[in-house]
Amino acid sequence: MLSDKGSKMTQTVKEKQNRGNFGEGSVGRLIMAQAIPLTLAQLVQVLYNVVDRIYLGHMPETEEGVALTGVGLTFPVVALISAFVNLFATGGTPLCSMARGKGDEERAREVEGTVIHMQVVTGILLTVLILALERPVLYLLGASDVTYPYASGYLSVYVLGTVFVCIGTGLSGFINLQGYARRSMAYVMTGAGVNMVLDPIFIYLLKMGTAGAAWASVISQCVSCVLVLHFLFGPLAVLKISMRDVLHANWKLLPEIVTLGLAGFIMSATNCAVQAVCNATLSIHGGDLYVGIMTIINSVREMIGLPIGGITAGSQPVISYNYGARLTERVKKGIRFMAAAGIGYTAFAWIMILAFPGFFLRMFSSDATMVETGRMPMIIYFGGFIFMALQYVGQSSFVALGKAKQSIFFSLFRKVIIVVPLTLLLPHVAGLGTYGVFLAEPISNLIGGCASFFTMYLFMYRKL
User: How many separate domains does the chain show?
Assistant: First the structure.
């Protein structure tokens, strides 16, 4: 009997040790085993904000989506928070995976502890900074006297959950790389479930408006944060870390983490810049109505971009692990699978958006003027969505293989060098007006996506 217990314990230990071992088995299956839970987790994560916008967009007492427009003005600030989350998260998780692939558990543990430390510090600093600069920033982003109260009501509360976002979102990757992608998904789903229950209560029943939507998000993010921390410091974690690992961060690792994470940071930071420029330009050429339409389009983009984001995020730990283990052929298989799945999905999403733009607009607004006016901008904006797969695959491959400089360059190239100038210039070309703002996106997808993907293919994939 003791022998049976001993054998069961040995089997359990072996199963636990094999979690996160991506060096064996079908590469495609390993990626999808990571990608599906990650996509569902990210879907639920996006629901934090998307559900807020759906409820606010259908508020009967607001005309022409004023509440929705006000919340849309906060997007650049929310993107900035995501940028700092990604700075440490997307830099730390590949390093941790590579260390585990090499069998260096101590280094992997130190990377994780350092990332946790930085997420907490960053969350506190961002909260103080945003609250101090809220009013001038919102007006700079295109707020009017009509929309400012809605934007301020949302942001001043939402920012109180910044630390929870930095921990809950920023550390979920460390659960995934230990082979617990489903558990990570469950934690995020639990938080989002709380958000969906609280939203109608706070917005409609308690009549708290945009502030109620923000409070629902903060509480739900806190729930996810607690669950993530419970896992990382609990008995199920493969990487055993303690508070000492967190409090005594290894500052020598920080430059490596930040350098590799700069790609993810710049992608989110440039999203912040692009959204800020778009809102400000639309407020000049089209007014609050077109800022509201851009809010809906951004919300749709977040939703339909989730599967390609999940595929690339699920591929990264598999590719990084095999790269660290010097299993080159498996690395190439991972990149090929990621590219095929990504292009296939974006082609499908592309067709659906172009065929049914009104359906997606009505999800977020019952205002007839906003829905009818928004049809053409949505068709234009998503005209080059299929090429986003090339951008994702190229940059994700660079990050997975530890090539930070290349990934950073292509992040800057697409958004800063192409999108921002076009957003400012195209409204003045051939009488395009507001349509010029929406046209900048498909042009950047085509040029930036092809440049990123084919550079990766020619100078990295072929040399593996």
Answer: 1
